[in-house]
Amino acid sequence: MPNEAGAGLPRRLMASGHRGRARAAAGSRDPGEMGADEPLQHEPPEDVPPGQELAEREAPGHEPPGHAYRERKPPQREPRERESLERQIRFVIEADRLKKIARQSRITDGTRRENSAEHSWHLALMALTLGGHAPAGTDLGRVMAMVVVHDLVEIDAGDLFVYADSAAHARQEVAERAAADRIFALLPEPQAVAARALWDEFEERRTPEARFARALDRLQPMLLNMQTGGGTWVAHDVPLDQVLSKVELIEEGSATLGGYAREMIAQAVDRGFLRAVADPRAG
Amino acid sequence: MPNEAGAGLPRRLMASGHRGRARAAAGSRDPGEMGADEPLQHEPPEDVPPGQELAEREAPGHEPPGHAYRERKPPQREPRERESLERQIRFVIEADRLKKIARQSRITDGTRRENSAEHSWHLALMALTLGGHAPAGTDLGRVMAMVVVHDLVEIDAGDLFVYADSAAHARQEVAERAAADRIFALLPEPQAVAARALWDEFEERRTPEARFARALDRLQPMLLNMQTGGGTWVAHDVPLDQVLSKVELIEEGSATLGGYAREMIAQAVDRGFLRAVADPRAG
Description:
By secondary structure, the first copy, chain A, is an all-alpha fold. The first copy, chain A, has 14 helices and two strands; from the N terminus they run H-H-H-H-H-E-E-H-H-H-H-H-H-H-H-H. In chain A, strand 1 (about 100-105) and strand 2 (about 115) form a beta hairpin.
């Protein structure tokens, strides 16, 4: 059952004016490529110390070490294409900061909190593994793309605990929008728009892809909580009805996964990880 | 330029005998779904304490708290489908251990080593961002799937520094194959085979997707090294020719990214992160 829309998002997200150049077959040399027009073939002879062989072949005679690299032809790439690639790399480097954003959930061995980068990876793996439980026709490539970018805004806005109060959620929403404005704009224009649209789609939950991605995003911390003695449920004394409202979000994305989550919550109640009913006399 | 193969891998990877069930539209209730046949509608009235409302509606009268969850109908799901889902979840939970596998590279702020889960996420983001530099027709959905699973074997085998000696690489290869045998077999049969095939494809580097994925896997630590004062190059005093052999792997996946990497290496030499030529009198 091929789905033509399948590769849609990644292709759109990647659009950046480089397509013509990218058509060069792998391994072929485009004369316009910087530094790639002169393929290096270095299987150094065994009696030549590492590095020496290369310098000798490329800079014969009396050039100082490293000369071959410094004096290479200047890049032939058009300035705009070059700028575009540099912006993409800058975005990739900026994204690294997501590895420093701590979530509330702990990893399964309980030793530390999960960060948002590894959480995003876990969701992508879940999209691959559990994609069969998405509604028919769901574009799993788009789901993966969505979970990969969905938390980037936390680089500026930080992670908000899903059971925080509504005022905190409202403040977070404002902060995340500002973050999306800044972070996705690091990309070259057409990609910036596509990546932002992907993030908006996830937030709005109107497509099957967004609802399935969101279902995974809600299911994953429940799996971690079950592995860590109740995890954030116990640590924050989260009431059952709040957890059940997250189960509804899972059901909206996948009936099967929603059913699984509901069973898991019943177990969590049995094991004392969740209070079945709030005590009206409490707090 | 739609690419029918685009969604190919995720669809194959996700194949697990659940497709029939997954056809239920999002939000619809399949009577066979465990616990999902009775949609919960809980917008609790404001004067009812959290949790109370739900228990009252679903278990009116005198049942003890939590009863509604414990006494729900037993799952109608066929045992095989149920087992299949449980195996998928077990795989997802096992995969969490990748968050504990430390790589040699440090994250861009230099404060700690990167782990293999967040590294895999970074590669997936790079596939999205830099996919335009892959050869035309490259299936980026498959590239993403590949980078998401490629390091799972490190759960058992650990991460080997890319510049380790060839004996260590040979031992690592054996360990990784054994790990692949164990870890992918956690999945239900058809998925286990598909996931293993994906990992083999990455290792063998015969397809454009595998070569591009490998290029990203080689480029990413170079980007981190450039941000951390030379990173692993300096820490391990890696000779230039070894780094250049990795650049060749990048060029095999993408001429543009290979050219970019080559320029970066020239800068690394200029900045003293890499020795341009080995001193034959040394060591």
